[in-house]
Task: inverse folding
């Protein structure tokens, strides 16, 4: 395929001609596009491009495709498993300038937007219109990035994940073909579900340039509270019983006592140093009251302390800001450390067992590692705070992680509820879906035959 | 690939040896497996097989694959667009004997079952356990068939479609490979979403033999009602406002006056001959009351008559039985006629316009065709009652259908909300997803390279 006229140098010249100063090999920008927020070693791209439109992405893809240059879609770099790290060199395609909100349809509760729009930008845009977009992974990620990693977060126990909240996509394939998937109807049985195929594909099949997402009307009432428990078991059992009773809780987050300590220090709060649930209900005033009372009863039976329900926006904001700042709070707990966040998700019936065994394992492994999680979905993170230069500590972290994933899989769970596979969990994907991985590879090969779309991700041998 | 030793005759002998009397060429059974409940011409398979297990299906696939014999997965034959009709001959794989409910996990609210289990069988099994499976397309279809056509129905406005309610699958590929997709965790970001790929693939990529589905706790209160409206517009606007206000309604179904007439005659009821909404709320006693009252206000403002809310199971059953029997009621409205049910779905903001234009078009086209639909999703069916021997009437039906689909697509909708593409809508798939169909074909070719999995479905040239 590659001819003399299509050397990498020529391709870069063509990209420069196409994009002007939106093509760069500036070392600072290369370095910045070579890492994410996870624990994996950085590796810079050979160049960074900043498309302004789907049509720019199409032309970039055509040039890279002709020359066999890897393309790495990049949003704002908040991935945790190396999804944006150019493992095989190539061009980092930074979509953050494609940040137009193209249309908000209040009547249909949907919005069309470019993939570089961030979660916070979208919700600020929607604030005065009585609607919101619920998926909230904590980081202020781009919607394209969130779709690509099948992100979820604190609200997903009620509103679902990116899988449930994207109606359609515009995608640029490796060779520059542009296609639209899905549509604006709330449901469709028309052909293969390509939307779902690109969501969670981590940019290995194509580049998402536009999305149609679902919006939700702001509820009449929102009520939030924190509740401390005598022990971890009581907190987790409160979650399990709440979910099993079908109480439509919007958020139910667990922070263990190590995490609470970190949050108190970082956010200057004074929560009791105990395993704590952060909860939130959305609904009518009467509905929210009824649900809060039902959960209070469950918590009380499980050794929970007092609930201080609040419907005041300012108080709620303090509470969830503390939850959102967990990653920074953790880092501050051990200055100079690097974060390695695990991400298992298990059936709710096994959650208490899994969390308790894991907490025991952390202590036995002599690791500093708070637990925090979207426990309503059975998903929790162990946030290991590591000195990467300490070989012994890293070895203990690796061994712990192996045991954690094995434990979750044995319980019918998954190695990743929301962070994805990236570079970091490729072997875990084999462990979890060994019989399905060959089929995934067949699809990868069919859709990206020259393996230029974010190579080195998802699969060990790709 | 095909050798002398692998002629079709040899393959059939091998199937007979494998399955005994569960392999048949009995003409009655062939005839029965050559048609569905839709309007398309039947075409019998060459043989029918009745596997008892995934392992049977694997062996059947190996034999058929070697000889290039088309395989047509068959549940109970309730498809509407010819999905089970053997368009290219071959073997109909009747999965109805694979009807074991393998495990019900009440704590995790999920169940594992074979794909021949029917919707009603599952819910009867669950009845005394306080849980239920919500997806309800009307027909007593198999869960495998419902997954394959991405079915939905009356409850989907609250509980979602098959896309939202299947956690994992066991699938036999064309060459006999068996693989598992998804799992029991409520969410996962581990690799491509193969579960979603097989849901709605209409058996063209593989044969679903087992499913893990989501269950829901029975709510404390269920309240249902019918409400007649002065005109169609008022009924549809009530739906639109209810959805836009985010009232969590479980069912909201529209029957126009022609449909009500059919229902009254067939089910010996006496609803007023007016456009009517059938509604249902699920929740706490207080919540259901609150929601019913909110919708009553909306209906009142739109010319709705009195609501007679009932929480009595017997009264609810009469109401929904009438709704479920709509297809039979329609047939009885014009004895000897054949049903052709359309299935467009549009963004809710365009629903009133779409329904009203369509009703006008039906009348102008001189067709007998009630309208009934899952209007909360923007989805409605025009149930054309046709004398297939009347060429002029058939021509008017075809022309009407073209206009209907064009109207829905122009409004940002889809040609099929829940019935699928099958044989009947292959050109509509091109109209709707012309730029994505080549990618779908690439996937089809990669996963079923010899085109033996339900050929002649979805794609015009396949």
Result:
């Amino acid at each position: 395929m590659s001819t003399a006229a299509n050397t990498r140098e020529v391709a870069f010249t063509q990209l420069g001609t196409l994009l002007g100063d939106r093509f760069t090999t500036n070392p600072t920008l290369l370095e910045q596009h070579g890492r994410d927020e996870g624990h994996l070693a950085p590796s810079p791209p050979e160049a960074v491009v900043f498309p302004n439109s789907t049509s720019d992405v199409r032309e970039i893809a055509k040039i890279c495709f002709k020359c066999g240059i890897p393309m790495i879609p990049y949003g704002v770099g908040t991935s945790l498993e190396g999804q944006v790290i150019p493992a095989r060199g190539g061009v980092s395609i930074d979509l953050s300038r494609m940040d137009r909100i193209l249309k908000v349809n209040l009547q249909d509760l949907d919005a069309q937007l470019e993939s570089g729009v961030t979660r916070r930008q979208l919700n600020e845009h929607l604030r005065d219109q009585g609607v919101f977009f619920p998926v909230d992974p904590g980081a202020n990620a781009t919607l394209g990035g969130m779709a690509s990693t099948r992100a979820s977060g604190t609200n997903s126990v009620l509103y679902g994940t990116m899988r449930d909240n994207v109606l359609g996509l515009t995608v640029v394939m490796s060779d520059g073909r542009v296609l639209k998937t899905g549509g604006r109807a709330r449901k469709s049985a028309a052909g293969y579900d390509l939307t779902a195929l690109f969501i969670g594909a981590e940019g290995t099949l194509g580049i998402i340039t536009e999305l149609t997402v679902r919006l939700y009307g702001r509820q009449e009432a929102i009520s939030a509270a924190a509740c401390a428990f005598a022990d971890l078991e009581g907190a987790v059992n409160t979650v399990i019983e709440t979910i099993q009773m079908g109480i439509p809780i919007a958020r139910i987050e667990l922070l263990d006592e190590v995490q609470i300590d970190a949050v108190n220090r970082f956010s200057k709060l004074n929560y009791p140093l105990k395993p704590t649930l952060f909860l939130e209900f959305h609904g009518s005033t009467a509905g929210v009251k009824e649900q809060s009372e039902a959960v209070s009863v469950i918590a009380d039976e499980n050794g929970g302390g007092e609930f201080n329900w609040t419907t005041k926006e300012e108080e709620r904001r303090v509470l969830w800001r503390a939850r959102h700042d967990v990653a920074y709070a953790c880092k501050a707990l051990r200055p100079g450390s690097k974060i390695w966040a695990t991400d298992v998700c298990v059936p709710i019936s096994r959650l208490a067992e899994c969390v308790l065994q894991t907490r025991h394992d952390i202590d036995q492994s002599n690791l500093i590692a708070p637990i925090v999680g979207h426990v309503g979905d059975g998903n929790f993170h162990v946030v290991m705070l590591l000195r990467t230069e300490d070989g012994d500590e890293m070895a203990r972290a690796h061994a712990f992680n192996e045991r954690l994933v094995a434990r979750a899989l044995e319980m019918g769970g998954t190695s990743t509820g929301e962070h994805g596979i990236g570079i970091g969990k490729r072997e875990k994907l084999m462990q979890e879906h060994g019989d399905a991985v060959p089929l995934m590879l067949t699809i990868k090969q069919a859709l990206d035959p020259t393996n230029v779309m974010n190579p080195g991700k998802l699969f060990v041998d790709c």
